[in-house]
Amino acid sequence: MGVNPLSWSDIEAWSRFTRTELEPWELDAICAMDSIAVRWLNMSEADRKKERNKKPATDENLAGAFRALAAPDSKRKQTKRKKSDG
What is the pTM for the complete model shown? Predict the structure, then answer.
């Protein structure tokens, strides 16, 4: 049996228990990180070894990812449209 992703009820219960109101982007980040963690924890050791041998992320790539996450929703939608139009 593998690791399961966080459920919405798990996140909501934590939020109530800690009296923490999460912003939509924070929920997106939690779900994205959880997805990565679940994928990693459910991998075979051989697949984990392959992943470890991949080229690491660069500062430039990470900065671009964080800029995209920090962009307002309207700007992200415009960026997606521009890419699909071109």
Answer: 0.57
Per residue in 18-54, pLDDT tens? 999 999 999 999 999 999 899 989 999 898 888 887 7
Asked whether residue 51 is domain-assigned, the answer is: yes
Does residue 18 lie within any of the structural domains? yes
Q: Is the dihedral of CA 31, 61, 59, 67 positive or negative?
A: negative
Q: How many domains does the chain have?
A: 1
Residues 6+ apart with CB under 8 A from 42: 2, 3
Of 54, 10, 6, 56, the closest CA to residue 33 belongs to: 6
Q: Is the Cα torsion angle 17, 20, 21, 24 positive or negative in sign?
A: negative
Residue 79 pLDDT greater than 50, yes or no:
no
